[in-house]
Structures are given as structure tokens and as C-alpha cells.
Amino acid sequence: MSTGDEPRSERGAQGGGRLVPQGAGSPLITQHAAVVFLLAVVIGLSVGGLTAASGKPWPVAAIAGLTAAGVSIQPAHRLIG
Known about the structure:
- By secondary structure, the chain is an alpha+beta fold.
- The protein contains two helices and two strands, in the order E-E-H-H.
- The protein has helices at about 30-55, 60-80, and strands at about 5-10, 15-20.
- It is elongated.
- The model has no long low-confidence stretch (mean pLDDT about 85).
């Protein structure tokens, strides 16, 4: 069980690892991950909204939006990274 005070490994830009204590000042996710997931949410909402606007039932639009959001994570990670 983790208390959150143990050091965690963090990879730098050069690939070397360093130990950083995880405390109150450390972010939950990185800024890069937040931007990637935000972009995936925007894409998913856009696709779902356009699918619903085209006259499809809402479950079909929801599945289309979730699929688009999930599929867009990897390309967004490569594009932004």
C-alpha cells in the first residue's frame, strides 16, 4: 500500500531516471498528458455531437464519440510530444 510519500521514478528528456519525492507539490498528471487528454475529449465531443446532429440515436452518437476519443489519444500523443 502506498502512502504517497515514497519516492517515484521520473524519466527526463534524456531517458535517465531520477527519484522525485511525491508530495503535496507534485502534479497528479503531467502537462503533456493533460493536453493530450483534453484534445481527446474535444475530439470525442465533436464527433459525438456531429453524429447526434446527423439524426442518429444518442447511444450511437455516444459510442462514436467515445471511440473517436479513444482512438485519438495515441496520434495526439505523437503529434504533441
